[in-house]
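Q: What structure does this chain adopt?
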Amino acid sequence: MVKKKIQVLFEDEHYIAATKPSDLLVHPFKARSQDRRSLLRSLKKQTDLYLFPIHRLDKPVSGVVLFAKSKEATRLMKEQWNSENVSKHYIAMVKGVTETEGVYDFPIKTDKGLQEAKTSFKTLTSNDEYSLVDIEIFTGRQHQIRKHFSRRMHNLVGDTKYGHSSINNIFRKDYKFYRIFLHSYQLRFIHPFTKEEVIISSPVTEDCIHIANDLFQFDLTNIGNEAKEN
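A:
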């Protein structure tokens, strides 16, 4: 089997960003994990670079992931990661009919304890059962989007931890969809070294585009196709 090449979205002397497929860990950080494949290892092998992960996406989630090429670049980016210098945008499908727009601003429990978390969203379209939402997170907590929406009874489609098995089973049966309907389509930040704004975009995956077209007649094709860097 030929391994698919990792899509590099942005690269300069300090950072590199790539699209994470929904079947890969970002980093095999769990000692108990039997899956030795990861985006970090694949990208290192592909680029022959030693890389430092800035953040993570859950394994069943796809989209933009940023890596640094040095400890100093890692430190500087992490210092501003939860500031107004960085914005992170996602597309998700959730259970139920969401409000036109809203903000979830309440703490969530993580492996570091109770942490403040803020998530905003705008509804792109809804039917009687599901909604497509455009999300921005202002913090980067563990499972933040999944926890915020589940607490408001808008569980993400495909989420086996915080979602509904009955809904997930429908999508597995009808669409062969075995992941979370969550895609990180854009990352914006002020570059710590150049002080210029960088915009990195990752097109929504074909499986999510197909479901959105089928259930809502809504085209997600152009989301994440913006300029990949400023």
